[in-house]
């Protein structure tokens, strides 16, 4: 684990802990080159979430146009995307261990952007489900490659901060997706929103191919043949229970996050359309969908972005006080966010709820940097993409794959007794409380990391 040593004058960065046995050794790129890579990858990750999450603001128009049930919305926004996103992540990561990660990322960016555009051409549930699966196929190669590239580009004692910056792509991309989707769909329809969202990725893919550098030497075919097989990476991870506790906590957290984001817009439209229509007219928006897209996007982007950034900084700071610091930052953030998030859906008007959402969402996004930094420090450099893909497989199978689908089913279940509008409210509140389980998993990971360090 990375740490800070106490010296006269305060806490100063200490030399990073040794990497796992068998780690590769190669020089870090210059600070300027590392900053460029981190920010370019953050922007790519932002587009990743624009294309992944724009469907949430478009859910109600798509539901009306294609005549879908809430469970179909959940399958389209979560399960359909996750089907191949989760299963292809590991083979794509194996390619990233062998070949230029920047070129893999740029190619994947072009693929998922193309399928996002295709979503705008669909006319049936089966077609849009297929297109969403295609988006997942393209995005499968992004995160493992990008996180391992960042981990190889920055000093170990800055890893949580760098990965926290990268993870800002999640809330900022969600912000942009909601704003773009809401504004364009209100005026030109949901199909046009998909096309506008997908187009920039084609251009950025070309830029990334030409400029994104991989600090790891390409090596020879013999070098690549000597890389650890998947079974050996799994064997290493089996000996690290903290990895699996972090993966379990992240999967539960993602279950809440993905499930709720799929239904935020539906919640506001079903419960507060007259109020939000009046608010939209007062500020000059064409309708409530555009207003919700912009305001909810700002809430998710600003609060989530700040939470992600500060969480990464806190991770770097508190791991200095002990090897469980990463896990404790994540555990405390989930412990605070769960009850606040459950309560906020019952607190007054639609505008009040929009404003108050900033508080629980700030805490809910603090886990990214600390957890990803902990994962990157558990495995040798040349196997980091594979370890990340295994981690994301667990995370997304439980979170992305089931979150939206089960939240939709819970909403349909409550709707039989309370109506469609209240059904989605109770579903959002109920799933918020699952955050207590993720807090327990992160806390357990912290305990294990401390115990292992004490016995080392």
From TrEMBL:
Alphabetized UniProt keyword annotations: Membrane, Transmembrane, Transmembrane helix, Transport
Domain of life: Bacteria
Residues annotated as signal peptide: none
Membrane topology of this protein: Multi-pass membrane protein
Annotated localization: Membrane
Pfam families to which the protein is assigned, alphabetical: MFS_1
Domain Major facilitator superfamily (MFS) profile, chain residue ranges per copy: 37-447
Major subcellular site: membrane
Keyword Transmembrane in record: yes
Keyword Transmembrane helix: yes
Residue stretches spanning the membrane: 33-50, 71-92, 104-126, 163-184, 190-212, 243-269, 289-312, 324-347, 353-375, 387-411, 423-443
Gene3D superfamilies on file: MFS general substrate transporter like domains
PROSITE patterns: MFS
CDD domains reported for this sequence: MFS_spinster_like
Official protein name in the record: MFS transporter
Organism: Sphingomonas olei
């Amino acid at each position: 684990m990375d740490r800070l040593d106490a010296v006269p004058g305060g806490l100063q960065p200490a030399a990073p802990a040794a990497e796992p046995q068998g780690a590769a050794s190669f020089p870090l790129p210059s600070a300027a080159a590392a900053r460029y890579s981190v920010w370019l990858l953050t922007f790519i990750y932002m587009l990743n979430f624009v294309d992944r999450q724009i469907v949430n603001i478009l859910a109600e128009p798509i539901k009306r146009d294609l005549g879908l049930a809430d469970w179909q919305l959940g399958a389209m926004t979560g399960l359909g995307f996750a089907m191949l996103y989760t299963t292809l992540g590991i083979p794509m990561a194996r390619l990233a261990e062998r070949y230029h990660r920047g070129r893999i990322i740029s190619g994947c960016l072009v693929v998922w952007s193309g399928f996002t555009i295709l979503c705008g051409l669909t006319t049936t549930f089966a077609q849009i489900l297929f297109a969403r699966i295609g988006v997942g196929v393209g995005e499968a190669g992004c995160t493992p490659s990008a996180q391992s590239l960042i981990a190889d580009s920055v000093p170990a004692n800055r890893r949580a901060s760098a990965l926290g910056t990268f993870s800002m792509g999640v809330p900022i991309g969600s912000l942009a997706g909601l704003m773009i989707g809401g504004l364009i769909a209100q005026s030109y329809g949901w199909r046009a929103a998909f096309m506008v969202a997908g187009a920039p990725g084609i251009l950025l893919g070309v830029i990334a191919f030409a400029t994104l550098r991989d600090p790891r030497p390409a090596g020879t075919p013999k070098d690549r043949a000597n890389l650890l097989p998947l079974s050996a990476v799994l064997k290493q991870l089996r000996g690290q229970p903290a990895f699996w506790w972090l993966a379990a906590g992240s999967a539960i957290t993602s279950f809440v996050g993905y499930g709720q984001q799929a239904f935020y817009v539906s919640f506001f439209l079903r419960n507060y359309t007259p109020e939000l229509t009046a608010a939209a007219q007062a500020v000059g928006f064409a309708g409530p969908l555009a207003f919700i897209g912009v305001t909810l996007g700002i809430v998710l982007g600003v609060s989530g972005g700040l939470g992600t950034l500060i969480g990464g900084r806190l991770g770097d700071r508190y791991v200095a006080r002990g090897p469980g610091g990463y896990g404790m930052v994540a555990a405390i953030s989930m412990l605070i966010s769960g009850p606040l998030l459950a309560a906020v859906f019952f607190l007054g008007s639609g505008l009040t709820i929009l404003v108050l959402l900033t508080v629980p969402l700030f805490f809910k996004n603090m886990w990214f940097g600390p957890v990803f930094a902990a994962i990157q420090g558990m495995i040798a450099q040349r196997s980091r993409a594979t370890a990340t893909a295994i981690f994301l497989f667990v995370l997304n199978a439980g979170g992305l794959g089931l979150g939206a689908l089960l939240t939709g089913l819970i909403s349909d279940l409550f709707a039989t007794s309370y109506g469609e509008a209240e059904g989605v409210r109770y579903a959002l509140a109920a799933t918020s409380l699952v955050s207590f389980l993720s807090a327990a998993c992160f806390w357990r990971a912290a305990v294990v990391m401390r115990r292992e360090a004490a016995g080392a």
